[in-house]
Amino acid sequence: MNRQALVGAFVLGGVALLVSAFVLFGSFNPFSHTDRAVLVFRGATNGLSVGAPVSFRGVQVGAVDRIAIDYDPKTREAFIPVYITLRRDDILVAGRKNGHLPSLRELVDHGLRGEMNLKSFVTGTSQIDLDIAPETPAVFHPEIASETEIPTRQSSIQAITNTLTHLPLRKLSTDAASTLVTLKHLAETLDRSIPALADSVKQTSDHSRALVDTAQLMITALQPQLQKTLTDIDRLARNGSGQLTARGHDLHLLVENSRRTMETANQALGNIRDMTGSRSEDRANLAATLRDIAAAASALRGFANDVERNPQLLLTGRRQ
């Protein structure tokens, strides 16, 4: 009997130690307050499994309980609801006393958001990270979530993954291959053309050097003649300046005489204008003179006609 009691006490002690170790070092704590929540992801949840940690800025506050798939045949869209358990005792709010903890709905209203991030690059496992991000709009799925829903946002790793997933790799590969072929063809063309181009450049350089040498010789030969021509031009300019200085007085007199002649001409034109004016007395006298001359010419014409008809008038005169 004592032996059986000893065995039973040993077994009970072992169970108590096991439970104590599990409670102290494990994630299970029957005396802590927990909340259940769900996060609905639209994309893939690669690396996320049941038991994955749920952390808030690096501090683990829960774990993943269940991962499901919600498929809508009408829209052909699939959502991944991830159910988690949060330990409320690990979440404190400044100013709250007497153990009064905020509800999960209050935390969501204050901007609690969740995202899926890579936990280990080696194993490829993922975890759920929570953070306060009120600038991220809250999108809820009441038709899917049966628990309190924590809105999700796209993590930077997911954004990079989606970008890489939607990259047109086949087109990029085809374009790269086409570019390599073009570069190879260009390299071959340049390999064939560069020697001929180098020879042409060398010949052009030789011709240019010969042309420069010829031009230098011509300039050397023409330099004395150019110097003589410049000297003659300078002497001609000095002579012209001297002649202009010497003829300056004559030119002044010529200009003065021309001015006087112009004044005399203007005065004569003024007199003529006065004589031919409509109210000028000289014009009236000239008009009377012209009328008298016209009358005399008419009388002379009549006398000439009479003489032509009767020549004796020259001897006998007209009889009264």
UniProtKB/TrEMBL annotation:
Xref: InterPro entries: Mce/MlaD
Q: Which residues form the Mce/MlaD domain?
A: 43-103
Pfam families annotated for this entry? MlaD
Its recorded name reads Paraquat-inducible protein B
Annotated source species: Swaminathania salitolerans
